[in-house]
Amino acid sequence: MYMKAIFFIITLISFNFLLSQNLHLDSSLKKINVKIEKIDTTRDWDAVNNYEIENFSSNNATLKTYNKKGEIVKMVFEANYSTIKKENVYYFDNDFLIYAFEKEISNIISNDIDDLASEQTYKSYFEEEKLMRQFDSSDAGCLFSNDYLKAAGSSIVDEVGVLKSLIVSGAKF
């Protein structure tokens, strides 16, 4: 009898703990989505800068930054490779990455078949530049492991750092 009661209490505590973590995560994602919508509906930018990146491993690569109060608030990177088009959109709050949207469209050209295209998207949510949740268009909303989130988040933050350093260093675009 006591064992059943203890088991029930432990199960209840565990369930409440997991539920509270999910509620916090959902709340954080909603706050980020509100910030993204606000950024996307802004029209009065202090500056919008366009860069064409030379010496890049694609046929054409561009970077566009949207600035408010001297900070980059949104950055759009586009690159066209021979069979792949890539678009990454990064959103910032107080100079911290909060969201990254990555889209990759692959075109397969064949004489036997009409052009085939596949699209892959990733939506990555950050808190203090640590990836807390990622949605992949090819999965069914599965949660990723902490190790995966750490590695994927680090890769995205590094990519953003490289793009920002190109702008700051005045490298030739």
What does this 3D model show about the protein?
The chain is an alpha+beta fold and 173 residues long. It has helices at residues 2-41, 146-169, and strands spanning 47-52, 60-68, 71-80, 84-93, 96-108, 116-127, 130-136. The longest helix is centred in the first third of the chain and has 40 residues, at 2-41.
Features:
173 residues; alpha+beta; 7 strands; globular
Oligomer: single chain
Lateral arrangement of strands in the main beta sheet: 1-2-3-4-5-6-7
The DSSP helix count reads 2
Instruction: Give a quick account of the main beta sheet: strands, pairing sense, barrel closure.
Output: 7 strands, antiparallel
Strand content: 35-45%
Number of extended strands: 7
User: Could you tell me the mean pLDDT?
Assistant: 80
Rg calculated over all Cα atoms? 21 Å
Spans of at least 5 consecutive residues with low confidence: 14-23
Give the termini distance in whole angstroms: 73 Å
Characterize the overall form.
globular
Q: What string, H for helix and E for strand, traces the elements in order?
A: HEEEEEEEH
Helix content: 25-40%
Task: Give me the secondary-structure topology.
Elements: H1 2-41, E1 47-52, E2 60-68, E3 71-80, E4 84-93, E5 96-108, E6 116-127, E7 130-136, H2 146-169
Antiparallel strand pairs: 1-2, 2-3, 3-4, 4-5, 5-6, 6-7
